[in-house]
TrEMBL record:
This is Transporter, putative. It comes from the Bacteria. It comes from Euzebya pacifica. It is a multi-pass membrane protein. PROSITE patterns: MFS (PS50850). Its main location: membrane. Residues 1-401 form the Major facilitator superfamily (MFS) profile domain. GO terms for molecular function: transmembrane transporter activity. The keyword Phosphoprotein does not apply. It holds the Pfam family MFS_1. The keyword Cytoplasm does not apply. The chain crosses the membrane at residues 41-60, 67-86, 92-113, 133-151, 157-177, 225-247, 259-277, 289-306, 312-335, 347-369, 375-394. It is found in: Cell membrane. Keywords: Cell membrane, Membrane, Transmembrane, Transmembrane helix.
């Protein structure tokens, strides 16, 4: 599993540097992008992420996660280098769309690897470690990009992204997966029951794969619950994407570089949350704990914007990011267990699609709401939304936990880590 974790950290470090310094920086500073331009860019990113996530999930289940990671990296490298050629904002957006599509496929594929690499008992720890690598890259990538930019400019940042992707590709080539024909969904996984049995209900074609994954998600309460819990933090995130810079400018009265410092602290909190989960045993990974951490993240975001005092903002960044760092890998583990090995990619991709879609919705209404109610009130409401709505899922979460507890004694973990240890 360590090669997968390292590959994600290396690849994500370059991607975060290219996104925050390269793409956003080039759009805003070199091409003098307006708020409307950046909103359009955010919308394109969100749509590309939705399409790439659901498509990547279908590819994972049709081929395997390792092959899809390799293919996505092969596409990603020339696509990110092509950004050097963008001479205006429309060309940057057009070329960037390919990057964001490939990146979403890559994200879905690499986060679908743990169920193929470890047994069920190790899935909690594997997903937490994989997410910790991503959060650490969220801190390291922009920091390295900021240090490199005065020396190499925008072009050098995109080259750095391509190099890190090539390194990640070499690492993934060292991963061995078990024979796909030998993989069988355990008898108690949700994907094997009823009319959605992957053998008796198999249909040809990639679109059929996507539709089958959606049908599975809509008919299995456990997966629907995970999608609901994944959407709530994303709704708040979408509002913050649109309004957070204005909050720091108009409410906190802080200079622009403060955003970078606070987001670095936020990334550290996300990393700490995932690492905390990695050290817990499987008993913590329950649907009810999923509800609780989503509620806690909502309360943390409320504290984040509750005052204009920067000290309170910093405390809020920690109390928001730590439970959020727990929530994502926890939800992914619950969904992957519910999906079974035959539908892991499609269900993992749906989580990405739902999260991206949920973050897009607030971008549309944020300017109007902020003009009517004020920036701080809108952000407070966004945080409260998760806090208020998450408890509505408590009874469903308790029911799914009882189902899982009843099935656990009959589901002995099978398999072992198949990744080389050297």
């Amino acid at each position: 599993m360590h090669l997968t974790v390292l590959a994600r950290f290396v690849s994500s470090t370059g991607a975060e540097a290219a996104f925050f310094i390269g793409l956003w920086g080039k759009a805003a500073y070199e091409f003098d992008g307006t708020p409307t331009d950046l909103a359009i860019m955010s919308a394109i990113i969100g749509v590309a992420a939705m399409i790439g996530s659901v498509g990547g999930g279908a590819l994972v289940d049709r081929f395997d996660a390792r092959r899809v990671v390799i293919g996505a990296e092969v596409v990603f490298v020339p696509a990110t280098l092509a950004l050097i050629l963008a001479s205006d904002l429309p060309r940057l957006l057009a070329l960037g769309t390919v990057v964001w599509l490939a990146g979403a496929v890559l994200e879905t594929a690499i986060t679908s690897l743990p169920p193929a690499l470890v047994d069920d008992a190790g899935l909690d720890s594997a997903n937490a470690r994989l997410e910790s690598a991503n959060w650490l890259a969220l801190v390291a990538g922009p920091a390295l990009g900021g240090l490199m930019f005065p020396l190499v400019g925008f072009s050098g940042i995109f080259v750095f992204d391509a190099v890190t992707s090539l390194v990640a590709l070499l690492l993934v080539l060292g991963i061995n997966l078990p024979d796909r024909d030998a993989a069988r969904a355990p008898a108690d996984t949700l994907a094997t029951g009823g009319p959605l049995d992957p053998v008796t209900d198999a249909r040809p074609g990639p679109l059929a794969d996507v539709l089958d994954g959606m049908r599975l998600a809509m008919t299995k309460p456990a997966i629907r619950l995970v999608l609901f819990l994944a959407a709530l933090p994303s709704l708040a995130f979408g509002m913050f994407i649109a309004l957070e810079p204005l909050f720091f400018r108009d409410v906190v009265g802080a200079p622009v570089e403060t955003l970078g410092y606070v987001n670095a602290i936020f990334g550290v909190g996300l990393f700490a949350g995932s690492m905390w989960l990695e050290r817990r045993d499987r008993q913590f990974t329950t649907f009810r704990n999923g509800v609780l951490v989503v509620m806690a993240s909502g309360l943390g975001s409320v504290l984040y914007v509750a005052t204009g005092d920067l000290r309170v903002v910093l405390i809020g960044a920690i109390t928001w990011s730590i439970p959020l760092g727990i929530a994502l890998p926890l939800s992914r583990t619950l969904a992957q267990r519910a999906a079974g090995p035959t539908h892991v990619g499609r269900v993992t991709g749906l989580i990405g699609t739902v999260s991206s879609g949920a973050s897009l919705l607030p971008i549309v209404v944020a300017p109007v709401l902020a003009a009517t109610l004020g920036i701080q009130r809108v952000l407070l409401a966004a945080g409260l939304l998760a806090t208020v709505l998450a408890p509505l899922a408590w009874r469903a979460a308790a029911r799914e936990d009882r189902v899982s507890a009843a099935a656990a004694p009959r589901s002995a973990p099978e398999g072992s880590t198949t990744e080389p240890t050297g």
